């Protein structure tokens, strides 16, 4: 509803369009969700296995965050200029990430201090939390399905008929 002068009334939501680049918002949400789970795992790892448990959890969390955040950052950079190309870049970056992730794990090997159980548990928990946060944030992104401005300019009587 509008007031008498045509201004929107207080307390009502105004319509809005597509988000220009939603990827950073998705990144922040996923980072917060996995960070909360990572912090809980870190406290548990420290209490149960000491510093090596804490280090194992931290190492797992950093690897998982780096693995997933890279795609969202590339999506943000590409999506600003070419929103349609962002999904194609996700596919390309995914292949590169898998190779890099395997290389990191192979070249580092298993450090002496690493607690395998805590590493695996934290990696799985962080992955699930990241995916849940990413899905939640992505489900709230607004995508432009129809370009009303372009459609309006091509209507008969608009002066822009083909």
Output the keywords.
elongated; single chain; mainly alpha; 162 residues
Name the overall outline. elongated
Largest sheet: none
Gap between N and C termini: 37 Å
Strand content is: under 5%
Question: How many domains would you count in the coordinates?
Answer: 1
What is the average of the pLDDT values?
A: 85
Run of helices and strands: HHHHH
Instruction: Tell me the number of strands.
Output: 0
If you had to describe this structure to a student in words, what would you say it looks like?
The radius of gyration is 23 Å and the shape is elongated. It starts with 22 loop residues before the first helix and ends in a 9-residue tail after the last helix. Helix 1 runs antiparallel to helix 2, helix 1 packs antiparallel against helix 4 and helix 2 runs parallel beside helix 4. It is 68% helix and 0% strand. It is built from 5 helices and no strands. It is mainly alpha-helical and 162 residues long. It has one domain. The mean pLDDT is 85.
Summarize the structure.
Residues 1-32 form the PH domain. By secondary structure, the protein is an all-alpha fold.
List the helices and strands and how they pair.
Blueprint: H1 23-49, H2 51-81, H3 86-108, H4 116-138, H5 148-153
Helix pairs in contact: 1-2, 1-4, 2-3, 2-4
InterPro entries: PH_domain
Keywords: Membrane, Transmembrane, Transmembrane helix
Protein name: PH domain-containing protein
């Amino acid at each position: 509803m509008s007031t008498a002068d045509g201004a929107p009334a207080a307390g009502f939501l105004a319509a809005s369009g597509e988000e220009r680049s939603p990827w950073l918002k998705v990144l922040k949400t996923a980072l917060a969700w996995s960070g909360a789970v990572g912090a809980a795992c870190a406290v548990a790892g420290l209490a149960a296995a000491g510093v090596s448990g804490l280090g194992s959890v931290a190492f797992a969390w950093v690897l998982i965050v780096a693995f997933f955040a890279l795609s969202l950052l590339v999506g943000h950079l590409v999506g600003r200029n070419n929103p349609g190309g962002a999904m194609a870049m996700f596919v390309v970056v995914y292949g590169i990430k898998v190779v890099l992730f395997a290389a990191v794990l192979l070249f580092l090997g298993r450090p002496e201090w690493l607690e395998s159980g805590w590493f695996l548990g934290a990696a799985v928990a962080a992955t699930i939390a990241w995916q849940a946060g990413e899905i939640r944030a992505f489900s709230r992104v607004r995508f432009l399905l129809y370009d009303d401005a372009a459609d309006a300019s091509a209507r008969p009587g608009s002066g822009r008929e083909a």
